[in-house]
Each structure stands twice: as C-alpha cells, then as structure tokens.
C-alpha cells in the first residue's frame, strides 16, 4: 500500500511540474501560437490534468481511510490540505478560468481578474504539499 501511494504522489508531482511549470509557459513561445490558441490548448490540457488529479485524490482518500490509525496528525493535515486544494481548483477556480477562455475564444471581452494568479499560487502550494507528503510517507514506518 505504501508503494502504491508513493507511486501516485510521485506521478502526480511529475505531472504538475511538467504541465504547469514546463508545458504551459513554453507553449506560448512556439512559433505562430497566438494567445487565444494557447489558451484553448491550455483549457484542454488543464481539464485533463484535473481529471487525473481527481482520480488521484479519490485513491488518496481511500488510502487515508485504510491507513488512518497509522498516520500522524501533521501528515493527515498535509494530505487533507492537498485534497481540499484539489477540490477548490476543481469546483471553483478551473470552471471560472474555463468560462474566461470560452469567452475569449468566442471573441467576448473579459474583465481583468486575479484567478489565473490564484491558480498558479495553488499549483506552487500543491507541489509543496505533494513533495512534503511523499517525503513524510516515505520516511514513515
């Protein structure tokens, strides 16, 4: 079971780092990629990433339920924070960003917002939580 959760956390961390911090900014540097086209691609990629993250969250919840008596409070707080962060991204932030992208793709002007910056901040926090939880679980006996 420990190996399974470490594998999930490791793959999850790699996906977030690869997509959020490598693919997302680099796609806008590709020749002939417009902002609108990049946003359309980003919507597809981040929606797919979010679906995988929701699956990983459900698996993590199952692992927590199975291992609950063996987990210390700091680790539980980290894992619950991670799951809460995914829920906020999934049910509040990503839908708002998707509506903005849809409006832009349809030529509708959108008001400035800080939602993208919140998403980036959450991604940074998420990577920290993923790495910390991986280390704590790896070192836990």
How would you describe this structure to a colleague?
Helix 2 (35-67) packs antiparallel against helix 3 and helix 3 runs antiparallel to helix 4 (115-139). The chain has one domain (2-139). By secondary structure, the protein is mostly helical. It has four helices and no strands. The chain has helices at residues 2-27, 35-67, 73-105, 115-139. The radius of gyration is 17 Å and the shape is elongated. The model has no long low-confidence stretch (mean pLDDT 95).
Instruction: Provide the gyration radius in Å.
Output: 17 Å
SSE-based structural type: mainly alpha
Could you give a short account of the major beta sheet? none
Put simply, the count of helices is 4
Uncertain segments: none
Instruction: Assign a percent range to the helix content.
Output: over 70%
Please report which band the strand proportion falls in: under 5%, 5-15%, 15-25%, 25-35%, 35-45% or over 45%. Answer: under 5%
Distance between the termini: 12 Å
Helix and strand string, N-terminal first? Answer: HHHH
Number of strands: 0
Overall pLDDT confidence: 95
Tally the structural domains: 1
Shape: elongated
In short:
With 141 residues, this protein is an all-alpha fold.
Fold topology:
Elements: H1 2-27, H2 35-67, H3 73-105, H4 115-139
Features:
83% helix, 141 residues
């Amino acid at each position: 079971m420990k190996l399974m959760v470490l594998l999930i956390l490791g793959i999850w961390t790699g996906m977030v780092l690869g997509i959020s911090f490598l693919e997302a900014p680099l796609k806008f540097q590709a020749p002939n990629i417009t902002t609108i086209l990049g946003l359309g691609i980003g919507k597809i990629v981040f929606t797919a990433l979010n679906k995988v993250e929701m699956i990983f969250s459900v698996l993590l919840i199952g692992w927590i339920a199975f291992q609950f008596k063996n987990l210390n409070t700091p680790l539980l707080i980290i894992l619950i924070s991670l799951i809460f962060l995914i829920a906020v991204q999934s049910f509040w932030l990503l839908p708002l960003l998707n509506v903005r992208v849809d409006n832009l793709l349809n030529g509708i002007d959108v008001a400035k917002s800080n939602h993208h910056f919140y998403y980036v901040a959450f991604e940074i926090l998420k990577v920290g939580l993923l790495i910390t939880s991986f280390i704590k679980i790896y070192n836990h006996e």
